[in-house]
Each structure stands twice: as C-alpha cells, then as structure tokens.
Design a protein that fits this description.
By secondary structure, this protein is mainly alpha-helical. α3 crosses α8. It contains ten helices and no strands. The chain has helices spanning 8-18, 24-39, 48-57, 72-82, 87-94, 99-106, 109-112, 121-131, 142-152, 158-183. This is HDIG domain-containing metalloprotein. InterPro entries: HD_domain, HDIG_dom.
Length: 186
C-alpha cells in the first residue's frame, strides 16, 4: 500500500506544514516541485509521482524542528524514515543534488551511507529540478545556478567545496535528464 508521502499531494502537505516560515526556501521548494513535474517525462511512468513527491520533500531537513546534524539531506531523510515513508523516497531525499559530496565535507559520510544511493533517471531528474531552480524559485540555467551557489557560500565552506567537487556529477545528471526529456516528450 503506498504511503501518502510518496504522492505529490501528501508530500506537498508535509512540505507546507514545515517550510513556509523559511520564506525563499518555501518558494524554492514549490518551484522545484513544478520543475520536477515538467521533467517527469524523463522517468518511467510508474516513478513520476515519486519524483514529484521527492521534489516537494527534498529540502524539509532545513525546517528548524527537524534540524539534528545541520545537514539537511540527512535530517530530512531521518524525519521521513521516522514517519515510515517509503524507503526509496527516503533515499532520494538523502541523496538529492550530490549530497555525498557535502557529507564528506561535513564528516557525515558514514551517516549518509546508511541510505543507499540509486543511480537512476529519478535521481537525475530530482537533481535537474533542484539544480535549475534558484533560491527564490527562479528558473536558472545549470551553470548560473551553480555559480549562484558558489557566490552565496563563502569559499572554503562545506557547501562551496562540495558544490565545486560535485559540479561534473550534477551537470551529468542535468544533461541526462534533458536528453530523456527530448526523447520522451509529454
């Protein structure tokens, strides 16, 4: 039986219960979910709702009440796991947008490794949605988005270092998704 959390509506309701006080983070999340909907043709039909649900939930770990490690992919995944969300949804949130690179910077690789990372069209499309959406929901080209992150975070910070290292991986996911979208128009 599917969980309400792995449906776009159930995921949106949970995100809306946690993120609106965070202002731009909520705007970003709504736009990432819309972008994931646009990119859903790039994933198998059976995975489209999961993709959009993961987009709604990808940043819930920023909610102050969920903050434990301070690393939002891990804090969000742990919260979803505590809610008995489907394991695949938990793993997608844990590994969105190259989280493994930032986990390494933060000394949280072992904790993140508790969640297997899938190499799939769904994870690629989630990365695409996040890495083409600005911090206040703007639609950005991939390179503009990466540059925006690198300007926003101080050189030498965990995020700056992680994004710098992750850039080729993230670009590959975005390019694979764009190619799938062209090959499978809605």
């Amino acid at each position: 039986m599917p969980s309400a959390l792995d449906t776009p509506r159930g995921a949106a309701e949970l995100a809306e219960s946690l993120l609106p006080p965070l202002g731009n983070r909520w705007l970003h999340t709504q736009a990432v979910a819309a972008r994931a909907e646009e990119a859903s043709a790039a994933v198998p039909e059976d995975d489209r709702d999961l993709l959009v649900a993961a987009a709604w939930l990808h940043d819930i770990g920023y909610a102050p009440e969920l903050r434990d490690t301070g690393f939002h992919p891990l804090d969000g995944a742990r919260h979803l796991e505590a809610l008995d969300a489907p394991a695949r949804l938990v793993r997608l949130v844990a590994h969105h947008s190259g989280a493994v690179y930032e986990a390494e910077q933060r000394g949280l690789s072992v904790e993140l490794a508790a969640y297997d990372r899938e190499d799939s069209a769904v994870l690629d499309a989630l990365i695409f949605a996040d890495m083409t959406t600005g911090p206040a929901g703007q639609s950005f080209d991939f390179d503009v988005r990466i540059d925006e992150i690198l300007v926003r975070y101080e050189p030498g910070s965990e995020v700056h270092n992680a994004i710098s290292k992750a850039r080729p991986y993230l670009k590959g996911a975005v390019e694979r998704t764009r190619a799938r979208m062209v090959a499978q128009p809605m």
